Every structure is written in structure tokens, then in C-alpha cells.
């Protein structure tokens, strides 16, 4: 094989690309993402994500977060050695839980909810009610039911009030301009509470207060 010809006189040498070996994900993922975004904005050619042979977090989930936080650098992910599928899923879920600040929940049918509970017991799983009925059941909270997009603020208030009266915990509404406008107007921020029966402790307290005042 012939050698590459030497660069012509006066030609600039080829630029050396810079890859940044990222630190391990700390307890404050927002700071980590901000640091990664800073390297990207500063001109790094690649962000190198290597969690070692047995990483504490799922590197592909971290790469997804990096893809949203950065815009130009190549994302180089060192995949760990093969591990059981359940362990991969548990690690991925734990990573998203950390990145989201604990906001992650799952949705599945009853059988799948049981499986997910064994893999990730700290992640709540919304149980799909069909064919028993539309919507989902949130553990420890209540039922989420589908609802149509609001025709306007008044219709949205009526829908929220009706859901509260029926004991519905939440509504699942298709994305759209009407819903966006209702949310921007703060209509959904109005307090729509479900009727609750007084608890035994509350009844006892009320009776004690009445006796003291009499």
C-alpha cells in the first residue's frame, strides 16, 4: 500500500477531534446534563459514555437524555457485557426514575403489572381496566378515564367537575390546541375535589371539639 502523500506546503494540519469521557451520573442528574450540554456547546466532537462492565444506570437511557440535552456532539456509548433481560429493564427503569426525579410510572394490563412489580417494585404501574372498562387504575389513588378534547373553557370546567363528582382521579385527554389553550388559561388548575367521607379519626376529633366547646 502506498503511503499517503504529504500535505502540501502551507496546508493546515487536520483538526484533532475531541471526545469527552463523561463522569458517572451523580445524585443530581440536572447538574450532570448541564455539564454535558456545556461540553457540547463548547465544541466537543464526541461525548463518551462508559459506565464500566457493570454500570449502576442504563447507558442507553442516559444516551437518550443526552440526545435531548445536546445538539451537535457525537454520542459514543460503551455497552456493558450481556446481562439478563430483567436486569436490563430494572436498570433502565431506575435510570429514568433518577433522571425524572421520581416522576416515572408505567401502564400495562394486570399480568404485566405483576411482572413489572417484581422487576421494579418502586415504580407505580397503572393497571389497564379494559375489558372491564376504559381507562386505568392508579395504585393507591384511583381511576383515570379517557375524555374528549374540551370544546372550550366552560366545557372543560364541566368535564372536570363531572369527573370529580364521579370519583374519577384523572382524565386522559388527546393532545390538541383546545386542550393546550385550556391548560394555558389555568382552567385545569381550579380545585375539583372528589367527595370524601370523613375518616374515623376526623369524626372523633370533631366530636372532641364539640364537647370542649359545649
Amino acid at each position: 500500500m502506498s503511503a499517503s502523500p504529504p500535505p502540501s506546503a502551507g496546508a493546515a494540519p487536520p483538526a484533532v477531534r475531541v471526545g469527552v469521557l463523561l463522569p458517572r451520573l451523580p445524585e443530581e442528574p440536572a447538574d450532570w446534563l448541564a455539564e454535558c450540554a456545556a461540553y457540547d456547546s463548547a465544541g466537543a466532537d464526541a461525548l463518551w459514555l462508559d459506565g464500566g462492565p457493570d454500570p449502576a444506570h442504563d447507558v442507553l437511557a442516559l444516551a437518550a437524555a443526552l440526545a435531548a440535552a445536546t445538539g451537535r456532539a457525537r454520542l459514543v456509548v460503551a455497552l456493558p457485557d450481556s446481562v439478563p433481560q430483567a436486569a436490563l429493564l430494572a436498570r433502565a427503569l431506575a435510570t429514568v426514575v433518577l433522571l425524572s426525579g421520581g416522576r416515572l410510572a408505567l401502564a400495562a394490563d394486570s399480568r404485566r403489572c405483576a411482572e413489572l412489580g417484581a422487576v421494579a417494585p418502586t415504580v407505580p404501574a397503572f393497571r389497564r381496566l379494559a375489558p372491564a372498562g376504559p381507562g386505568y387504575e392508579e395504585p393507591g389513588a384511583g381511576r383515570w378515564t379517557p375524555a374528549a378534547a374540551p370544546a372550550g373553557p366552560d366545557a372543560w370546567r364541566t368535564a372536570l367537575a363531572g369527573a370529580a363528582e364521579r370519583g374519577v382521579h384523572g382524565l386522559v385527554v388527546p393532545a390538541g390546541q383546545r386542550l393546550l389553550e385550556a391548560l394555558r388559561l389555568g382552567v385545569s388548575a381550579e380545585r375539583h375535589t372528589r367527595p370524601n367521607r370523613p375518616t374515623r379519626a376526623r369524626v372523633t376529633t370533631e366530636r372532641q371539639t364539640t364537647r370542649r366547646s359545649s
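The CA atoms of residues 75 and 162 lie 48 Å apart. The helical segments are 29-42, 59-69, 85-99, 110-119, 153-165, 177-184, 200-213.
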